[in-house]
Amino acid sequence: MTSDHELGDRLRRAFESEAPPEITVAEIRERAAKQQEREQHTDELAATGTEGRTRAVTRSENFPAGTASEASDKSVGPSLMGLEEDGRDLFGLAAHKLNTPLATIRGFVSTLLQRGDQLDTETVQQFLELILTQTDRLQDLVRDFLLLARADAGIEARAWRYLPRTLLLELADNLGTEGVRVRYAGDVDAEIVGDGELIMLALRPLVENGLTYGPRLGMVTVTVEAGAEVTTWEVHDSGYRLTNERISQLFRPFTRSDEPVERRGSGAGLGLTLAKAYAQVLGGQVGGRADAQGTVFWIKVPVPTANSTDAPPSLQPSET
Amino acid sequence: MPASWDGFEDFYNQTMPKTYRTVLVIAGDRQLAADATAEGFAEAWNKWPKLDEPSAYVCKVAYNYIKKYWKRVKNREILTSSPEVEEGDLTAEALAGQAPDAAERDLDLLKAVADLPEQQRAVMAGRYILDLRPIDVAEALGIKRQTESEYHRRALLTLRERLADWRTNE
């Protein structure tokens, strides 16, 4: 008969050679800061009484009825940021988003000033890297705010002929090394009429989300369907991470996925809001769904009736 | 942020490998186990130095994190009408698979452990890998002391029976 302790020893031995993950204390600190941020955010949402407020679509008159099912967002209003309609103190949330990285930077700089001489070189290096990461984050936030403000102030959508393949190649190029994980399907060589630049701006956060939250090193597929009246762009990744209910919430500003893999993302929760804003400028809609193959976000844009050829050179169809 | 994190780094360096192994026994997935372990230590960092029994606290946070993850996966499977995932179902392959020394692992034991219900597995891991006291295991799992003791008794019984059966059949 095996004794309790012998069994315990066997269990211990069976896992003794299991190498622990390489997670540094600095990474734990960073994760702790994110946890605090999440908690503050939750408190703020609770304080402002925001849950569940939605309103009807008001800008989809020129969009064919019945095409936006699944989890399409319904919180569209005259103001793309939805400041009044959403009911949340978005300025407060924006200030908080800016404050969090600032507080982290201040904390690390303060520690370096007070105790820098007691810290070893490696720790100092880690602190500096964290400061740089947070500074990048601030910069990204400000960029997103500017893009949203620009979309909110009213951009005029133009129309020209372009090839989806050209647009997608440029998008992949803009994503740097991560661009190699983007593949294309569908009518990528069909000539499309519309504002390719705005489509690219709307697609970018969807693709970035797929790369960030999908499986590690997994592919993101962009599928184009060029219909006579509507062009549909679908961004698909094979990550099983979201429910349809959660997807519908993610289009609200400053809302982020709370999945385990979120540690890989450091955005403010504005990506899908930006995608929605640009889709609306184009008179289209955005939405998402979870299916058996993974997670899909889509943009449906009506084909403009009046054509023009004032295309930026980069997106004009090639002659070949 | 806490006023002082004195001792956290030592605590982390000393207990992280054991904690990770404990969490791995419960999760059966290295990525999830690493994620849950990091979550546990990050929470401990935010509560440092107020914790009486930090190891148990880290384990508790990690365990809740895993359960939350399983629940989400299960909900997702239901939404897509795919076969349901039973929370905590594991295989020996999940516990030993892809380990560099998989061939040398105590596969009989891993098989028997993988067949245990999730909470019994957690009790065994808490007691024997993380070396927690039974009362701290109960606290970490959010169960009564008596329940912990019962899970432990049943786990030992099952393991003994399974291991004896396999030995007899060899």
Structure write-up:
The complex is a heterodimer of chains A (320) and B (170). In chain A, helix 2 (25-48) packs antiparallel against helix 4 (90-115), helix 5 runs parallel beside helix 9 (271-281) and helix 6 packs across helix 7 (196-213). Chain A has helices at residues 4-16, 25-48, 83-86, 90-115, 121-153, 164-174, 196-213, 244-249, 271-281, and strands at 160-162, 182-186, 192-194, 220-226, 230-237, 285-291, 294-302. Chain A is of the alpha+beta class and 320 residues long. The model of chain A is unreliable at 48-87 and 260-265 (pLDDT under 50). In chain A, a hairpin with a 2-residue loop joins strand 6 and strand 7. Chain A has 9 helices and 7 strands. Helix content of chain A is 46%, strand content 13%. In chain A, the strands form 2 sheets. Chain A has a 5-stranded mixed beta sheet. Chain B is mostly helical and 170 residues long. In chain B, 71% of the residues lie in helices and 0% in strands. Chain B has helices at 8-27, 30-47, 54-79, 92-96, 107-114, 118-128, 134-141, 145-169. Chain B is globular, with a radius of gyration of 17 Å. The interface between A and B is large, with 41 and 54 residues.
Q: Report the count of strand segments of chain B.
A: 0
Assign a percent range to the helix content of chain A.
Answer: 40-55%
Biggest interface and residues each: A-B, 41 and 54 residues
Summing up helix and strand content along with how strands pair, one would put the structural category of chain B as mainly alpha
Average pLDDT over all residues of chain A: 73
What attributes does this structure have?
heterodimer; A: 320 residues; alpha+beta; five-stranded mixed beta sheet; two-stranded antiparallel sheet; B: 170 residues; mainly alpha
